[in-house]
Amino acid sequence: MTSTPRLDRITAGGTNEVFDRIRLADGHTLSLKTRPGADTADEVFLFPGLTVPNTEAWENEDQWEGWLTGGDLGGEPLYLDVPIDAVRDLILQHGGEHEDQESEEPAPGTEEAAPDLLPQIAYLHGRFKDGYTPDDVRNVFECIYTAGGPYLVCVWDYADEYGFGGDSQFYAEDEDGDLFEVQPDIHQWLSGQQETPGRMDTWVCAPVTEPTEFPVGDDFHNYARLDRTGG
């Protein structure tokens, strides 16, 4: 096994136009977006505390036009068209990939600073402008959760042999399975109707009072109120 198995898997299969996170052995984190079998990553985002060498491979930095922060991303840059070999070298410089890719433990030296999470998900702006599918929900909501946001779910009218369908509504779900209303800003931002989704700590609102036991779920951000699968 190589010391970069997660990167190898990501580069082989691509990221389906969303970012996929890699946690490094020393606790630092990066996320990247790439196409299946590509030699370059379309975009590489560095989480707080991680820096790159001053080489040609990392020279194409996107300034994001001050999105959300008036020109200040707090030192977390986005790089475009980075060779996969350069990403691999960076990972190896930090000891390879961490054994626990799911941990949210902060990187060394960043424990004292509460990071602004919104710049880390800025690339999701407008992702639902042409509508969304259950797969879109899985990808986008997992990116938000991985970045430290709430665990969002989408509740559809029904699920049938073709999957989830009908009208849908977003909620937040806690570890006990209880649902909470969320600000409409989230949907409007993901749909490209407004520039920011508001502060992340304001997203989750009052508990849902109606019954929230759904007959169908994919255990990954989607539920259905009605089961039409015939199972």
TrEMBL record:
This protein's name: Uncharacterized protein
Organism phylogeny: Bacteria, Bacillati, Actinomycetota, Actinomycetes, Kitasatosporales
Annotated source species: Streptomyces carminius
